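Sequence, please.
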């Protein structure tokens, strides 16, 4: 796989994780409204940390879900920092290896 294919694949994976993260927030909000079993916060945070942080913030805002939960907001911010740090490290390694 050449560099262009790797970058394209990375964009597809990131897009998928962001869509998944956005949908998770909507799903969890709906289940909360219906009084049903919820998505664990750890799952919401993990999806954000693995690459879906933009989708998490968009879902949080769009569905007005977990906006008053300050510990969750802090954890989501931490997951975003880990995501950005990881992506930056990987990108740096790819650029210096090329």
């Amino acid at each position: 796989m050449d560099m262009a294919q790797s970058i394209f694949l990375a964009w597809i994976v990131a897009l998928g994780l962001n869509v998944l993260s956005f949908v998770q927030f909507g799903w969890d909000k709906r289940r909360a409204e219906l009084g049903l079993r919820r998505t664990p916060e750890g799952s919401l945070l993990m999806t954000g940390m693995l690459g879906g942080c933009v989708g998490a913030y968009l879902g949080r805002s769009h569905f007005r879900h977990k906006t008053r939960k300050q510990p969750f907001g802090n954890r989501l911010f931490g997951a975003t920092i880990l995501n950005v740090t990881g992506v930056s490290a990987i990108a740096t390694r790819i650029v210096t290896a090329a």
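The longest helix spans residues 3-34.
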